[in-house]
Amino acid sequence: MTVVSAVITGSLVTTLLAGTAASAAPGPDDDGSDTLSGRLLQVTQLDLSDDPAEASRQIDEQSVTLGTVDGGPASLQVSPGGIAVTIYYTTPPTDGDLAAIRELGTVDDVAAKYLVVDATIPAAALATVAALPNIAYVLENIAPTTSGVSRDIVGARAETTSAARPTDSCRTIEANLAEPLNVPFARELYGVDGTGVKIGIISDSYATRTDPLSTPEQDIAAGLLPGDSNPCGYAQPVQVVKESRQAGSDEGRAMAQLVHSIAPGSTLLFASGSGGQAGFVDAVDALTHAGADVIVDDLGYSGELMFQDGPASNALSDAVADGIPFFTAAGNDTSFASVGPSTGHVISSWETPEYRPTDCPPSVAAYLRDNEMTGDCLDFSPSEQADPTDTLTYPNLHNQANPSATIMLQWAQAIRASDTQLMAAVLDSDGKILRITPSQPLGLPLQTLAFEPDQGDLRTGGEYDFVVVRNTTDGIPASLPRVKAIFTGSYLRGAEYFENTGGDIVGPSIYGHAGTPSGVSVVAANAADPSVIELFSGTGPLTLYFEPFPSTKALPQPIAGAPTLTGLDGVWTNFFGTPVPDEPGTYSFTGTSAAAPSAAAVAALGLQKNPDLTPAQVTAALTSTSREVPFIFPGVERKDVTGSGLVDAAGFLSVLPAPTPTPTPVPPTPVPPTPVPTPTPVPTPTDTPLPQPTSTAVPVPNDAGGTRELGRTGTSADGALTGGVLGALLIVGGLGVVLLRRGRTGRPRL
Question: For residue 444, is pLDDT > 50?
Answer without folding.
Answer: yes
